[in-house]
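Re: export button greyed out
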Amino acid sequence: MSLSYIILLLLSVLVLISLLLLLKSHSFTKNSKTQLDNQQKNNLYKYTLIKEVQESIKYGKNLESVIDTLINSLEKTLPYSTLSSIFIKEQKLVFRSQIKESVNHAFVENIKNNMLNLITDREILQDSIEENISGLSLEDLSSSSILSTFDIKIIIKNKVSAVINLSSTKPSLYNAEAMKDLTFISEFISRMLTNIESFLDIEKSKTLSMIDSFSEGIFMIDTNQKLIAMNDSAENFLNIHKKMPVTGDVLLALPNIYNFKEKLSNVIAEKKQIIEEDVTIDSKIFKITLSPVLEINNPQNLIGASVLLRDTTREKSFSQMKVDFTNIMVHELRSPLTAIKASSQFLMSDASLTDEEKQKLTGMISESSKKMLDEIALILDSAKMDAGLFTIRKVRSDINKLITDRVAVFKPLADEKAIKVDAEIDPSITPFSFDPIRIDEVINNLLSNSLKFTPQNGSISIKARFSDGMVNVSVTDTGQGVPKEKQHLLFTKFQQAPAGGSHVGTGLGLYVVKGVVEAHGGKVWLESEEGKGATISFTLPIVDAVQTASAESSPATPQNPMVN
Amino acid sequence: MKILIVDDDEMLINLWSMVLEKEGNVVINARTGHEGIEAAKKELPDFILHDQILPDMSGNQALDLLKADPTTAQIPVAIASNYSDNVFMQEAIQKGAVDYILKYQIDPHDLVGKINNLIQGGKTTS
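Workaround output, generated via the alternate export path:
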């Protein structure tokens, strides 16, 4: 064998080897290229699907549209006998199944039950399941054995809210490895929907806490008359204490006669506001405003209707008090005028009157005129106080003398009713600066008031004493006292409504007393227990003598709302 | 005739007493609703003139009490008031008042004739 032959042989072997190697390497690169292509294709598929899913998300219909998109995609890409989905829609479960290859009832029923078991809140929702089975009709003779099955779970806020299932009568179709991408996609979708829901929850809770902060009652229904929001005030006003109230609860709580059900439909149908005033619910009076709710960015689009309940009970009772007050005032002026009219009519026509009778009648006219003028003075004073125009004239005066003089005038009146009157003065109070005419009126008013409410054989006592730079004057009686629930009204303009049948005077007396005392920088208050009499006290500050000497006229203190 | 006036307006009591007494009637008076009911039971008057607004009760409340008691149920009661409130008026008539007299409208001379008519009317119808 020649050397050249050996070399040639070796060369050819080398060539062969390198050729083989080359071939091998070629086939290797080709393989990895296909793999790469496949992966790219897969990624593209995943990307497209996720994009489609993202686009399919619409407000309020997230889950359903996402499932539709997924099913659309699966339909085209994977083999199956049945492609089913189960999901929550408006508190109800929906089950859908597409039958591509002949299966029987039991097959679908099994799939449905398996899927149902995966749904987290099925206990609350299971009551009625909406079913939609499409494609081939179910044949009882067909196969019932599920040989391949795969579930895609959508988990929103840690709860399985939807399941998509692929099942087949053929074996080994969906192994875990092959379904890796699908699992990835479902996890991605779950995260995305969870984020959206959490975001919506935060926004919703912000809106709800905002509407909860309103003292007005607010609730909202959507265009299908479903209750979508309701604040605490509305729940309290309507007495609804349920975890998840529905429109029916609200309609039941509203008075029947107004037919709010129809009114809500009208608001939605005609997009116009309806207002109902003076609606009584549980002895409260409400103004109820029903308004259409339009989308902010698209006002053509109606979202639903909102209902606002405003408690107007106080306003109404205040205006009622004003009416009562006017009634009482007119009545109080009418009484003395009635006496004047009747007395003069009697005097003019009856010739047979004795001198004594004539004198009595003229006395009545004079007394009634005085009573009426006093009442008018009170009305004018209170009007001045309301307008901030009330002034007092301070002069150095002796309050002890003022009290003793007033009691001397008052005693005969009390004697008529056999009521004992005591005056207790404090000799340490020297003359100081106050309006003697006004303070005399105050004392007279308090004593007359006590006289009205104290029964025969009772007693009235007036005390003056000095303490903490103030003079404190109090009038105590053994009358009927003031009930707790009426005490806060005592020094207001509207203290006496004739509702209970009980009234005395216009009730302006104590209002003016308060105004006069406060114009002096003092305070007035009541201590009373019903049935055990009452004590009304007031204070007058003793201001520096030099200062008071120059303060002849002092306007009502501006910081006092009563006289301002 | 014996007439009971229940009113907290002393002036009016004096005036009406004078008018009625001049015509030969006996007038008794009371200043509160409770005093009025006591007086009605004790004195059994022929007629009661009752104020609507009193410190302790309304005229309509007094009507309930007077009509519920067999000793006073038959006594004709007229409510006299300066309140021309329809609700008060209707309620008073419904509770058995023979009339609702507006104090500011009635002439003292007419009062005697009116009371006589009301007593007569009450007798003829009952």
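Chain B is about 50% helix and 20% strand. The button fix ships in the next patch.
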